[in-house]
Amino acid sequence: MLTYTIRRLVLAVPTLLFISLVIFLLLELAPGDPMAQVPLTVPAEVKEQMREALGVGQPIWISFPKWLYQFFVIEPMVMIDYYFGTSLSEGQFRAISWQTRSPVMDIVVQRLPQTLWVVGVAYIVGFAIAIPVGIYSAYKQYSLFDNLGTFITMVGFSVPPFFSGVLVIVIFSVQLGWFPSIYDTTLVVNSWESFVKQLNQMFLPVMVLALQITSQTSRFMRSSMLDNLNQDYVRTARAKGLREQAVVMVHVLRNSMIPVITVMALSVPQIFGGAIITEQVFKVNGIGQLLITAIQANDLPMVQTLTFIFAVLIVVFNLIADVLYGLLDPRIRYD
Q1: Which end of the chain is least crowded, N or C, by CB within 10 Å?
Q2: Can you say whether residue 95 is alpha, beta or left, with left for phi > 0 and alpha for psi between -120 and 50 degrees?
Q3: Is residue 288 in some structural domain?
């Protein structure tokens, strides 16, 4: 398993390099001018000097290696300097956002906690609900619980987040007044009262994202459980006198989790993508909203960085899913 993991990590390097090149080329070919937001009173020669300062118009064989060096070398050096008090990145030129004239990764790090609060909690809540619901729905197939769960999950899977987000705002914020409709990103959690307020403002966006996770995963969990409940090894375990709880929760669940792991691993990048819409609806000042504003402002360095981070998430969680296959099923070997 260790050899396989190392091999996959080595293969991930050219994969990510190719993805970064494709992203870079597509964005370089996209129309847009970082000086479009500059007032018309600024002289043309000043705008041209600003373009040169930002590195706009450089050949691809210069700008692409420069961006790779900034992302993979300079930014890790900045992180080391921050945590250990060194000065490795002193005098180095970092990737600068065209919109804010600040280092791109500094802005990403500032926005990341807001997204993790919403997406991370939604991920935990979604799977904490989806797996038990899928197990019980399969065990009690065609029961009232199964039919009701099927109806709710199909509705949740079919309704897009931009509609469900507005719907819950109208019901729970406008009509009932239970929860705020706008996420307060300036809130500092340093007491019990502020923690309760944080949970209160997280409820609606978390509910929208968790509904998507639960709807998709519970269907896969139910289908996988049904495939395994009628297998020969289940009948053998029951014939040996094992308790029904041990048969279902140990033997059947472990084998049923193998295909579900794929859904769980690949849903992490998808939820970050879904958070783009949800953050816009609830005004969460996170990664999703940062990407939207960067696209609108033609901020190519910011868009390149965020898009590449999403690509890294996909590659990493694909690897995690493959490793978990071997841990769940001893028959799977990567030697």
Answers
A1: C
A2: beta
A3: yes
In a domain, 258, yes or no: yes
Structure tokens that stand for 320 in this block: 């995690």
Within the chain, where are the H helices? 2-29, 44-54, 60-69, 75-84, 104-139, 144-158, 161-168, 192-229, 232-239, 244-246, 253-282, 287-296, 300-328
Total domains present in the chain: 1
The sign of the CA dihedral 166, 168, 173, 175 is: positive
**What count of other Cβ atoms lies within 10 Å of the Cβ of residue 102?**
13
Q: Residue by residue, what is the 3-state secondary structure of 213-280?
A: HHHHHHHHHHHHHHHHHCCHHHHHHHHCCCCHHHHHHHHHHHHHHHHHHHHHHHHHHHHHHHHHHHHH
Q: CATH number for the domain including 277? A: 1.10.3720.10
**pLDDT tens, residue by residue, 137-153:** 888 888 888 888 888 88
The answer to the question of residue 62 being in a domain is no
CB neighbours of residue 80 within 10 Å: 14
Read off the pLDDT of residues 235-266 as tens digits, 9 standing for 90 and up: 787 787 778 777 777 777 777 777 777 777 77
